[in-house]
Every structure is written in C-alpha cells, then in structure tokens.
Amino acid sequence: MRAARIERGLSQAELAEAAGLTRQAVYAIESHRYLPNVTIALRLAHSLGRRVEDLFGLDAAGTVVDGELFGGRQGPSSSPRAKVWWVGDRTLVLPIASLGAGLTYSTPADGLILGPVVGPGRTRRVRVQLLQDARVLRQQVVVAGCDPAIQLVAERLRQHREPASLLGWPMGSTAAVEALKRGEVHVAGLHVVDPRSGEANLPFVRRHLRDQAVTLVTFAAWEAGLLVKAGNPKAIRGPGDLARKDVRLVNREEGSGARLLLDQRLKAEGIDVALVRGYTHIVSSHLDVGRRVAESDADVGVGVESIARLLGLGFVPLQTERFDLVIPSAFLTGHPGVGRLLEALVSREVRAEIEALGGYSTRETGKVVNQGPAGPRPRR
Fold first, then answer.
1. Residue 195 region by backbone torsions, left for phi larger than 0, else alpha for psi between -120 and 50, else beta
2. What integer pLDDT is reported at residue 36 of this predicted model?
3. Please, what is the end-to-end C-alpha distance for the chain in angstroms?
4. Mean pLDDT for the chain overall
5. DSSP secondary structure string for all residues of 233-248
6. What is the pLDDT of residues 293-309, one digit of tens each?
7. Of the candidates 140, 118, 122, which has an alpha carbon nearest to the alpha carbon of residue 131?
8. pLDDT classification of 75: cutoffs 50, 70, 90
9. Are the CB atoms for 188 and 176 separated by under 8 Å?
10. Which CATH superfamily is domain 2-55 in?
11. Measured distance CA(349)–CA(265) in Å, rounded
C-alpha cells in the first residue's frame, strides 16, 4: 500500500482524507500494526486505483507456528479451531471449545490446530496453521477473568480508529491472577474484597504478585449477591438460608471471587459447608450460575445483578465489588493493544453500554488504583 501511495504522489494525510481515515490509521496499516477490515480495504483500494488483493496480500496468513496448548489435550475428535496469541516470546494456543458453549460459535478462530509437536517433553505443544496475519495476532490482548461485560469492550475495540482484537478468557479471580503471574495472559480481572481490611483487590494482588510491577485499573463496580428464582419463592434472604434442607446451591470454582465471598459469609454465619446442599455443584461463570437457577437445577447461587436482570431472576444483594484489571506495567507502553483497550474502556460509548446492563457503576472506570510493585504496603 505504501508503494502504491507514493506512486500516486500522496502523503499519508492525503490518502487518509481520501479514504475517510485518520493519518494514524494509514501509518498503522503501512507499518504492519494491523490489517484493515473489508470496508476500509475497499476504500483504500478505490482511493489508490488498485485492487484489494494487490494492496493486502496475506503472506503471513497460512503460516504454520508451534505453540503451547491450553484447555486440555487435543483429541482426534476435537474441533481444530483455536485462538493464538503471544506473550513475550511465548506462542500460546487455546482451543475455542475451551471457552464454553456460549462463546464457541461467536468467537472467530485465529488458526487451525494441525496436530501435536512430537518430541520428548513437548506433549503440550501443537502445530497451528494461522488464518490471520501473525503480525496482527501479536497485537491481540488476552484478558483472563469472569466479567461477561468484557465482550462489549472487545466489540468496541474492533471499531477503534486503530483496531485491535481482544479475547476474554473466562476464569475465576485467583486463576486469572495466577495465569498472569505465569506469563500466559496480558491482563487479569479480579474482584476480591479482603475480609480483614475491607479493601478491594489490592491486598490480594500484593499476596499473589509480590514485587511484580503491575498497574491496577478499575473496569467497573457491580453488585454481587444471591441469584434466586423470580419472586424468590423460597424466601431466601441471605447466606444463613443456604443451610436449609429445601435449598439447593449452585457454586463457583474454588478461588473465584464469588466462591470467596460465599465462604466468607458462611463462615461469618457459623455454617459448615457440609450442611449446604449443592456446595460441590460447580460451574465456571456468573452466566452458568444464572442459567442453573433459571432452569431450576438449583435454587440459589452467588453472582452479579446484571446476570439476574438478563435472565429475569430475583436478586438478594450482599456487597458492592470493584472489578479491576491487573496489567503488567511494561505492557502499558510495550503492547499497543493494551493501550487501545484502555482507550476503549474509558470511552463514553463503552461506559454507557456497561451501565445499561444494570447492576454496574462506571463512575470510577479507568481509574488507576495502583501503579508499581505489587508487594507489601510500605510502612508509614
């Protein structure tokens, strides 16, 4: 594209004006920072008097790469569709089916798993044929966490003036922070209130990440509580009712923010978890909790108010929580996709859409909670 622009005697600014883009977007395309979508590619081709295929040959698409496999071993009957991303020098591969049924058909694949890489000690590595340009995939941002609203940010990020892609990898707060610690994701989302101080997230991050330089940025605040059937037919008023024999719980996995909240409240009520029917009935997301209650597989579960509204459930509030994004500080300037994620997050459109879900507050969205080493709080 750069060669075609120079041949026509156009500056980047002139081409941008002709195609209805920003100069920054033209620069990003010419420097291989991203590939344009079909509409933009057609406009650029028209402005330059060329065919799209003359300007944007996907030489890096179809490339075969080796990567570390997550989400279970790839069996012969498994779907080969996968997400691919880079963290530093590591190439990471996640079968899309591992994201759960709700995301399997709505998440585009970055590549197709061809098979395992044979060799001693490499049973967790696979070979992948890319469906997108590897230079574009290197800008993909992977956010581990359990807030379903992250998908709204992903969509806005695709519409950014310099588009980037975002993968929300559903998992509980502890698992998300541990994945960040192991260098498997770019961002971890968590919502954990310290039972001693009542402080949100930062004490948890200090314990788990210690001296790692990270920045905490607030995504939103939400109401956490008990999801119950519409009309609350079993008159569940709080955690104390979960020990009743006529109440069945659906629970979250150990280490999730919802599970930590439940355990804290049961302990405060003096309730042994062995007395709670369904305590070992585990699902992996707020949405799954809501679905089990809506489908009468359970009477109650800990979740967020937005899910109750979505599914027409009753809601018994327990506490307001802050959902923060934990970002290695080096990524703030060293990974272009992370910067675009934060720009999209604080945009008026994203904040308005999150608020419209109900049960969310974006009053502090984008606020930097902590920047620097996550280690112990300095003594005063």
1. alpha
2. 81
3. 58
4. 88
5. TT---SGGGGGSTT--
6. 999 999 999 999 999 99
7. 140
8. very low
9. yes
10. lambda repressor-like DNA-binding domains (1.10.260.40)
11. 36
